Amino acid sequence: MEIDKIYNMDCLEGMRQIPDGSVDLVVTSPPYNFNLRIHYGKYGGWCDKDPNKYGGMMNDRLPMEEYFNWQRDCINEMLRVSKGLVFYNIQMITGNKVALCKILGEFADKVKEVIIWDKKNAEPAIKEGVLNSQYEYIIVFDKANAIARQFDTFNSGRGTVSNVWQIGKNTERSIKNHSAMFPLELPSKIMRLFSNDGDLVLDPFMGAGTTAVACVNEKRHFIGFELNREYFEKACKRIDIEQRQLKLE
Description:
The protein has helices at about 10-15, 65-80, 95-105, 185-195, 210-215, 230-249; strands spanning about 5, 25-30, 35-40, 40-45, 80-90, 110-125, 135-140, 165, 200-205, 220-225. The chain has about 250 residues and is an alpha/beta fold. The protein has one domain (about 5-249): Rossmann fold. The strands form 2 sheets. It has an 8-stranded mixed β-sheet with strand order 1-10-9-2-5-7-6-8.
């Protein structure tokens, strides 16, 4: 597959075309299964009026076991194509809580670190008796040497970087039904700290192209997949604008 390109296709299908260990770094944030609800004390309820953050191109209310199986397969592919590190950003919500705990167990020997992304301002609770949500996880998987917390590539000095990052959440609403984009600073910081100029970065859930834009700014190459056509086209336009701006500079 060509680099510095996004493909409008399913990420599992796409990743299976990438050779083993050919990607320097994976940075991604999968769909959170936002619309799965609890109905009479059991998973399986939902509200048809709930907004679909992914434009209706995927089922955002998968049964818990199905969501777990899907994400397990995706993480296995990310680890296969990566030379080592996978940065996996996810928020624990009702629709993925059990699956996320199972993922941590399934990949316990591949979890190198867990970074807390403090979004500075909490999202209001959806109902009474629920805590406001102010953070998300960035789970760092490492197929090469997860037993050690020390990173082989770490572009900062000892004692200079915490595993709690305060970065304000993205507030852009330029894409209809997509309010789940992470801020540009998040993938940019990961790349600066844990990769080098010219490295190849994969994002299997490219969305509106934020990871690719960060790659352009940080002098990394990228490859990514996005199933939603609207997001894909928006991402391509964002990347093109960023590349032309850099040439002008």
